[in-house]
Known about the structure:
alpha/beta, Uracil-DNA Glycosylase, subunit E, two-stranded antiparallel ribbon, 37% helix, 11% strand
Amino acid sequence: MNIKIHKSWIPYLETEFEKPYFKNLMGFIDEEYMNNLCFPPSEVIFNAFNYCHFDDVKVVIIGQDPYHGVGQAHGLCFSVADDVSHPPSLTNIFKEINNDLGLPYPKSGNLERWANQGVLLLNATLTVRAHEAGSHQKKGWEIFTDSVIEIISKHKIHVVFLLWGGFAKKKIKLIDTGKHSVLTSGHPSPLSANRGYWFGNKCFSKTNFLLEQAFQKPVQW
Length: 221
């Protein structure tokens, strides 16, 4: 596996790349991509880090798995490429932004525009076999992405972490809450949202308030 990751991350992650677990993980990924249809395409697995450079990180959104349908995943959690129909969780994210900030519902589900503003859209697991949710979990990705969260927590200040749903909320143990802000809510999936755990959380306006308190530019959601 040829790791295509922006140079700003290399000083913080290069020791991770040399660890046995990561080398084993890359061997597993090479084999999976050779023998199965997997997502996202191999050249964009590390897209989250390429669109959001280390020095720019001010918000972290944690997802679990990439989308496993054809043409959906492109390396940013919750995001889909232009002209791809919006999955239910993304639809609910956009509805909450509309409710919270009054912004119109966007045509494109491509969240590169967020990443370019310093929003790290990080899935805990960066790859998946087609149509098999969770198929690449517990192979080493979680060790890597947990390290990413810890590195951001250690080396940055005033980052806003958005932890949506039970899985993401467990990541709070990796974050220094004395230096950073953590906003939690239910997951934007229909199951959670329809039970009243997502809508009305106002996490987007709250994030911008916290950024402004830290003298940072708010995100144009």
